[in-house]
Design brief:
The structure holds 2 protein chains of 2 kinds. By secondary structure, chain A is mainly α. In chain A, 71% of the residues lie in helices and 1% in strands. Chain A is built from 14 helices and 2 strands, in the order H-H-E-E-H-H-H-H-H-H-H-H-H-H-H-H. Chain A has a two-stranded antiparallel sheet. In chain A, a hairpin with a 7-residue loop joins strand 1 and strand 2 (70-71). In chain A, helix 4 packs parallel to helix 8 (176-184), helix 5 (123-135) runs antiparallel to helix 9 and helix 11 packs antiparallel against helix 14. Chain B is an all-alpha fold. Chain B is 73% helix and 0% strand. Classes of the chains: A mainly alpha, B mainly alpha. Chains A and B meet through helix 1, helix 2, helix 4, helix 5 and helix 6 of A and helix 1, helix 2, helix 4, helix 5 and helix 6 of B.
């Protein structure tokens, strides 16, 4: 984030002015600018910055919201990885989920975006229909899928027509996670809109050039569209990994982490630790591990992007 | 190059037309079947919400419940605390949307069109809060709201919104940076204060971005799940998003009531989305974020 050029100029100009009255007016002008930002600053300190520091402090304690707080050092962190298999299993589940959720929703969203980017009639209507499941991505859709995945629900009845004996999805150790992953494939709205914007930004002259070289649709897709879309794939991959670490509502509403620990996720364990077991230090430690994981994997993806993300103008490689 | 010259000599127009027709046809087939799949869960939810309970688990399934059983809705309404939940969700959403939209507009003006020492450092703090998962803050916030006596009230759900939201500040700041500087300067020469410039000049021009922010804020607050789940304890004080869950745990899942509740909870979202679609899509495309 570079300093705004006008800002530097403005400050320089102000310091040149000697007259005391002008000087005071400038100070008020600066101060009034600060006043506009002040409401956010108060909220930031009260609801974000101070809690953030407090969270780190609490993670080194043993506390059930009662009178006594015991400092326990790194015990919560050590316990999380050594004593309780729950956290390790949740991390494993997160990777399992992400391994299918991230590429799956990217591919589906890309196919839909390619289709919508053709000059089709009723494009806005199709776009709305594909987008709708994404805005309700909360309890309501968890509840709908809870119903669809019932042992004798419509999904298994449909499989029955095909001669497949459907599993007992949400009550099966093997099939509960695939069920959550399948459900997540319906929440592609954000990715689809990002890809549509990306596709519309690919300059036509690249396709014209490819056509002159005799490229068919596959060659155009392979050598023009896909490379030009990599910055957008990168952006959605980052968002997808972050959202995999934050799965909560479907895991709580549809399976409650079960059966067994087949669908536990970090935030679900955090919720149990804080609001079922009232172990606030433990819950805070989980939150910090979650945050460190998210930052680590985001950084890793930024490092990996040099191997696969293509920027049209390599000089400005800071583009999204 | 040579192969292109070769294909040019044959009649390319007919070949192209043939492939485009096939392509068009295939495109529509895929789009229509895809949108049927994507809307199916919705349609099935509506169908189930009007189905008599005794027909829930019959095979083959009843596709269209006729006559529809509207009593599912009236029973659901009296059975739970549905009236409370709708009222609570409405209060929280209206106050949060107003707070987040108005405050974020004022703050974004400060970050985009005024200069003061430390402004850019503070904006980096705004961006940093976007990157940190809010789950880290849940425990200390719970402790704080508990000390304030706000647990099991709606305050924790809307009071923080009065201080703006980082994501909304970001969207509005980016938009306001794009408005010409001369607007402010001209108004300043006419003697307008910054407060007047903001409301008379910037806000009318920033209406599309403000609408985007309001739409995002509405949907995020209406759908918010983990915060009411944690900060509100008793069912009559709960919001709709968490309240619905009551039907899944309290009774051994009464799907006809559950689906009726889900239909009603989704309706405001669909209506808002329908009217703000353009702003919504643009907001996502601009920022790459959902909020």
């Amino acid at each position: 984030m570079s300093v705004h050029p006008e800002n530097q100029m403005g400050i320089a100009k102000a310091s040149l002015v000697r007259s005391p009255t002008r000087h005071r007016r400038w100070r008020w002008k600066e101060f009034s600018g600060f006043l506009f930002v002040l409401p956010w600053l108060i909220g930031f300190l009260a609801f974000q910055f101070i809690p953030f520091i407090a969270s780190l402090a609490i993670s080194f304690t043993d506390w059930n919201l009662g009178q006594t707080i015991t400092f326990v050092g790194f015990k919560n962190y050590v316990d999380l990885f050594q004593l309780e298999p729950l956290l390790v299993k949740s991390v494993f589940n997160t990777f399992y989920y992400a391994a299918f959720h991230v590429p799956g929703q990217m591919i589906i969203a890309f196919i839909v975006a390619i289709l919508l980017n053709q000059k089709v009639m009723g494009q806005p209507i199709f776009r709305t229909l594909f987008y709708l499941p994404s805005i309700t991505a909360s309890v309501a859709s968890a509840v709908i899928w809870l119903w669809l995945f019932q042992p004798a629900g419509i999904i298994n009845q449909g499989l029955g027509v095909l001669g497949i004996d459907g599993p007992n999805w949400l009550n099966s150790v093997t099939w509960a996670m695939p069920a959550l992953i399948i459900m997540s494939f319906f929440g592609i709205g954000t990715e689809m809109v990002i890809y549509l914007a990306g596709l519309q930004g690919i300059p036509q002259h690249l396709y014209d050039a490819a056509m002159i070289d005799g490229a068919g649709w596959w060659a155009k897709l392979r050598h023009v569209t896909l490379p030009m879309m990599t910055p957008y794939f990168f952006m959605t991959a980052i968002l997808g990994v972050i959202s995999s670490f934050q799965v909560f509502t479907p895991a709580l509403v549809m399976t409650n982490g079960g059966p067994g620990d087949a669908t536990t996720f970090l935030i679900l364990v955090l919720y149990w630790a804080g609001w079922q077991w009232f172990r606030m230090g433990y819950a805070s430690a989980i939150a910090w591990i979650l945050m460190i994981f998210i930052l680590l994997f985001t950084a890793l993806q930024f490092w990996l992007q040099r191997f696969w993300v293509f920027y049209e103008f390599e000089e400005t490689s800071g583009r999204p | 190059m040579t192969s292109a010259a070769g294909s040019f000599s044959k009649d390319p127009s007919t070949r192209a037309r043939g492939s485009t027709f096939l392509q068009k046809f295939g495109t529509y087939v895929l789009l229509i079947s895809g949108s049927i799949i994507f809307t199916f869960p919705f349609l099935w939810m509506m169908r189930t919400s009007l189905l008599p309970p005794e027909l829930m688990h019959v095979s083959p399934p009843v596709w269209i419940p006729w006559p529809p059983r509207w009593a599912n809705y009236s029973e659901m309404w009296t059975e739970g605390y549905f009236g409370f939940w709708i009222w609570n969700s409405t209060v929280v959403t209206v106050l949060s949307v107003l707070g987040e939209t108005i405050t974020s507009t004022v703050v974004a003006y400060g970050f985009s069109r005024t200069h003061f020492p430390g402004r850019n450092q503070l904006f980096i703090a705004v961006l940093a809060t976007l990157m940190i998962p809010f789950h880290v803050l849940l425990v200390p916030q719970f402790v704080m709201f508990n000390a304030l006596g706000w647990i099991n009230t709606l305050y924790p759900l809307w009071v923080p919104a009065l201080f703006g939201g980082p994501f909304y500040i970001f969207i509005l700041r980016q938009f306001m940076l794009g408005l010409p500087k001369e607007l402010d300067e001209a108004a300043e020469i006419d003697g307008a204060t910054r407060w007047i410039i903001l409301w008379r000049i910037i806000v009318p021009l920033a209406k599309p971005a403000i609408a985007t922010v309001a739409a995002f804020a509405f949907i995020n607050n209406w759908n918010d799940f983990i915060r009411p789940l944690i900060f509100v304890l008793t069912p009559e004080n709960q919001t709709l998003a968490v309240g619905i869950r009551w039907f899944t745990t309290r009774y051994d899942t009464y799907f006809h009531w559950l689906m009726a509740a889900a239909v009603i909870s989704i309706m405001p979202i669909i209506i808002i989305f329908f009217f703000t679609q353009k702003q919504f899509m643009r907001g996502i495309a601009l920022t790459g974020l959902k909020g």
